[in-house]
Amino acid sequence: MIYIFRLLDKPAAAELRTRMRPEHKAYLGKVADRIAFAGPLTHDDGKEMIGSLLAIDFPSREAAMAWLADEPFTRAGLYAGTEVHAFVNLWPQKAGFPPAA
After folding, report:
1. Is the pTM of this model over 0.85?
2. Is residue 28 assigned to a domain?
3. pLDDT (tens digit, 9 = 90+) per residue, 45-70?
């Protein structure tokens, strides 16, 4: 089952996000083959990061929650709020992806 993680940063957390980002990306790399999509949520400028949106396949909600609990941004206390929802993908993604080379 794909689980959607909607994770919103605490206010004024840009420095913490920047500092922890290498660990966060390495942690995501461990499940790269199960990621449907992942990226930062931003302000309308597309630059200032305010959170994360991840869609990752896990065998159960328990596995998804365990993964989130050990995620570097979570451990560092970056998030003000988290939501995790089961997701059924019924529409093939076309927008927001780079063209195939």
Report:
1. yes
2. yes
3. 999 999 999 999 999 999 999 999 99
Mean pLDDT by 10 residues, the chain (101 residues): 97 95 96 94 94 97 98 97 95 71 61
Residues of the domain holding 16 = 2-87
The neighbour count for residue 63, using CB atoms within 10 Å, is 14
> Residue 99: inside a domain, yes or no?
no
Dihedral in degrees, nearest 10, Cα atoms 16, 22, 25, 29: -150
Q: Using DSSP, how many helices (H) and how many strands (E) does the chain show?
A: 3, 4
Q: Which long-range contacts (CB under 8 A, 24 or more apart) does 40-43 make?
A: 41/6, 41/8
At a CB cut-off of 8 Å and minimum separation 6, what does 53 contact?
Answer: 4, 5, 6, 7, 37, 38, 39, 40, 41
